[in-house]
Amino acid sequence: MSARIMIIDDEKIVGDMARISLEQEGYEVETFLNAAPALDRLREQGFDIVVTDLKMKGIDGLEVLRTVKSLYPGVKVIMITAFANLDVAIEALRGDVFDFFPKPVKIKELKESIKKALQN
Amino acid sequence: MSALRKFRRKVFSGPVDPRMVFSRFKEVLESNTRALEIITDMGEKLGGEYIFDIVYVKKSYDELYAAIDEAIKKFNQLTHGRYDVEGVFRGIDGIIRKSIYQEDYLPAKTVLFFDEIGWEAARDAGAKNCRLAELKNSPGLNVPNGFAATSRAYDDYIRHNGIEKKIRQLAASDDRERLSAEIRDAILNGGFPGPLSSDFDRAVSRLKELAGENGFVAVRSSAEEEDGDISFAGQFATVLNVPLEAEKMKAAYKKVIASLFSDPAVSYQLQFGYTPGRMRMPVGFVLMVDAAASGVLYTADPASGEEKIVVNSSWGLGSPVVEGRVGPDVFVLNKGPVSLLESRPGGKEFMLVPVKEGGVEEAPTPAELKGQLSLNVSGLLELAGISLAIEGIYRRPQDIEWALGKDGKFHVLQSRPLRISIEKTRPSEAGIENPVLMKDRGFVVQQGVAAGRVFLLKNENELDRVPKGAILVAKHDSPAFVRVMTGISAIITETGAPASHMASLCREFRLPTVVNAGDATKKLEHGREVTLAAADGGYAIYDGIARELLAEARRGSPGVEGLYEFRKKRYIMRFISMLNLVNPLTDEFTPEKCRTMHDILRFMHEKSVQELIESSRRAGGGFALKKLEMAVPAGIQVVDIGGGLSPETGETAHLDDIESVPFRAILEGMLYPGAWQEAAVGLHARDFLSSMMRMEDITSGGAAYAEKNIAVISREYVNLSLRFGYHFNLVDSFCTERAASNHIYFRFVGGATDISKRSRRIRLIEAVLREYGFVSSAKGDLIVARISNIAKEEALRVLDRAGRLIAFTRQLDAVLERDDQVEEFKRRFLENNFRIG
Predict the structure, then answer these.
(1) Mean of pLDDT values over B198-203
(2) Which chain A residues are closer than 8 Å to B560 by Cβ?
(3) Which of B107, B149, B540, B651 has its CA at a distance of 20 to 30 angstroms from the CA of residue B287?
(4) What CATH number matches the domain at A4-119, 3.30.450.40, 3.40.50.12780, 3.40.50.2300, 3.40.50.300?
(5) What is the number of CB-based contacts under 8 A between chain A and chain B?
(6) Measured between CB atoms, which of B50, B536, B565 is closest to A12?
(7) Are the beta carbons of A17 and B560 separated by less than 8 Å?
(8) Contact yes or no for A106 and B562 at CB 8 A
(9) Is residue B568 part of a domain?
(10) Of B558, B478, B542, whose CA–CA distance to B787 is shortest?
C-alpha cells in the first residue's frame, strides 16, 4: 500500500503543486487549506506524513505539530514556511519536526525528505 | 552659434570627466547585474522544480522592480535622460502587476492577424491561435492564414450587450442551467459595438485580399487555456466553411463565443477549478483548406509513449476523424528513419464535405474511395516529416490536425501537446549502449533529453543557417540564440553561467541546455548525431540517438506545469525574462522595442557602453596625459581614470607600468613578434590622390575626435583610440571576472588608399573578428564589431588578437589589390604569419 501524505497550506497553489509532485511518486495525497478540517480528517484516516505550512490563520503549523505529535506520535511532520526564520526553525525542530523547508521548496528535496521519513 | 546649440555642445559633446562617466557606468552595471540575478532566481523558482507561493512572487518582483528602477536612475544620469526607458518600464510593470495581483488584463487590439501574433499574445489571441500563428510563422510549413478576434473583442461584445452581470452571477447561481441558457441567448441575439464591427470588417477585407473572393473560413474557439495542458478539446463550438463575408462571420462568431456557456462547457470548467465566466474567449478565423483527405497525427504512440508516428486519416474534412465518428485508415510509422510499419484500412463510412453556399454536409463515401487508402506511402512519409519538424519546435510529442489539399499539398490545421497516459519515469543511464562523449562538466541550465545533429556555431552571424532540430554547440553563450530557440533541440556552450541572459531564456523555452561545458566544441564535431540527457546536477552526452532515453523522457504527465495557477504565475516571466532586443547594431535597438524587463536591462547595458565609449573618446583636454614608451612607434598617450597605471609610473609610462588588464592584453598583441608592420608600403599615385580628397571627410569630425592616440584606462577598462595616417581605430573594453558585464567594441574607419582597397581591408578585419565570435556590421570602409557576455580569460585572448590585428592591418590596405587576397591574409593572420609582401 502506498504511503499517505497530508498537506496543509492556506495557499491553494502550494498544496496543488505538492500534491501533483508527490502523486508522481505514487503517494496518496490529500490537501487542506485550513488546519481544522485537516485535523478532523486525521482522526478518521491515518496518514504517514503531514506536510504543513507554519504561518496560517487560525490554527498555525506549530499547533498542528503539537496536536499531531500528541495524538499520533508515529506520524512525521514536515514544516514549510515563507519566512526563513531560524528561531522558529529551532523551536520547530525541538518540537519533533522531522524536517523544515523555507519556501520556495525544491520539489526534489521535499521528495527526498519524505522518502527518508518513510524509511525511518 | 545659438545659445541652445552652445548648451547642447556643452552637455553632449564637450569634454566630460571620463572618471565620472566610468563610475556611473559601473553603477548601471551593478544594478543591472542585481536585476539579472533576481530574474535568474525567479526563472528557477517558477520553473517547475520548486513549490512556491504568492509571497515569493510578490517579494521577488518588488525586488526586481527596485533594482531596475535604480538602474534606470543611474542610466538617466549617465545618458542625461536621452532615452525614454522610464515610460516603457512603467508599461511593462503595469502588465506584470496586473498579472500578479490578478487584475483584469485586456489587449489593446480586437483583431490580430497571424503574422502579428507572437509568444506574448497567448492570452490575447488564445492558445490555439497562438500555436497556429507560431506554426504559420515558421518557415517551411503550410498553415492556412487567418486572424484572431482577441479577448478584448469578446469583452467589448459582452459589455456592449450588457451580459457581463449575468456572467458574474453564474458561479454562485443555484440555477446554472437557466442562467447559462439566458447568457447564450443574449450572446446570439446581441449586436456588435461600432468600433468592433469596423475592426471586423477591415479584417475580413484583408483576409479576402489574401485568399481571393471565394474563400471560406473555419471559425474556431481559442479560449485562453484551450490547447494548453488542460485540454478543452471538443468543449466549444467550431463553425466550418463560413463564407468570407462579414455578416456571416459575425454570426459564426456569436455561435462560438456562446458555446463557452453550454452546459457541458460550464460543468467542465467547474470540474477543473475554473470559475465559469472568468474565462474570455478569443476566436480564430482560419481559411478553409479544400481537403481531399484529412485527419490527425500523433508523434508518439498515445497509449504507450513509444517513439512511433500514428496517423488517422479519412476522405474529406477532418472533424469526423477528430470526433471519432468514422473509422479512419490507421497508419503506424517508424520515427527514425521514417518508414511505414503498418496500415489498417478503416470503414470511412461517410465523408464531411463543404457546401458551395457555405456550411458542410455529410455524404456517403463513394464505393471506389471506400476501398482505397486515403493516403499513399509517399504522402505518409511527407506528412511524417512535417510532423517531426513540428515536434522539433515544441520538443514534446504533438497531436496534429492536418489536411491534404486537392492541390496535393499538406496543410497543418492545429498542433497541441499530446497527452500520454502512463507514469513518468526519470531517464536513467542504465542500459544505454551509446558511448558517452561528455559528462557532467559545467552547469545544467535546463533539464531535459534532446537528440539531434550538432551544429557547431562559430559566429552569431551563422545563426540563420542552424537547421531545425539541431543541437547548437558554441564557444560562448549568447542571448542572440533566442532567434533559434524555438527550432533547435538543445544548447551546449563552452563558457557561460547559469545566470546569463541566455540561461534565463533557455529556462523560459524549456530548452535543454548545458553551459560552461569545457571543450564541447572539440568533443562534439559538426554534423554528428548526439543525445543530451541533462538532469538535476549532471548530464551526459551520448554518441548517436539514444531512442530509449528520448522515449522515457517524453512519457509522463506535465506535472506541476499542468496546473492552471502555476501557469498563470509563470506567465509573468514572459514579460520579465524573455528577450526581444538582440542585435544592438540594428535600428531596432530602441526603448520603444523593449517588451520585457530583460529587454530594458539589455538596452541600458548597451547604451551605457556607447556612452562610455563616447566620453572616453572625447577625453584628453584637461587631463594629465602620460606618454607610453613602447617597442613600436604607436605614439600612445595614457589617461588613467583609476588603477590603470602602477603608482610607481614615472614621467613616461612603460609596458610594465600598465595595470589595466584589457589594455595590457591589447598592447601585448600589438607587440606580438612580427605583427607590427614596419616596412613602408608604397602608395600608388591614385591612393595618394584619394587620400588628399578624403582629408576633408576625415577631419570634419573636428574636435569630436581625439587629436592624438589616446588610451583612457582603468584597472578593468580601456578605451584606445588610434589614428594612424588616415584611419581611425577604436577598441573599447570592460573586462572583469563577471562575464555578463564584459564587452569588447571594435571600430575601424577610413584609410588613405582608394575605396576598393580600403573596403577589402574592412572585409579582412571583419572575417578575422568573426572568427573570434564578434558580431559586426560593415559598410564601405567602416566596420563596427562587438562582443559581449564574454568570460575574462577569453576576452583577454580576443583583445590580444585585436592588438595583433591593429598592428597587422595598419598599412595592409595598400597591398590589397585583389579580392582573393582577403581570404589569403585572413589565413596568414590566423596562422600568425604576418608577412604582407
Answers:
(1) 95
(2) 16-17, 20-21, 107
(3) B107
(4) 3.40.50.2300
(5) 64
(6) B565
(7) yes
(8) no
(9) no
(10) B478
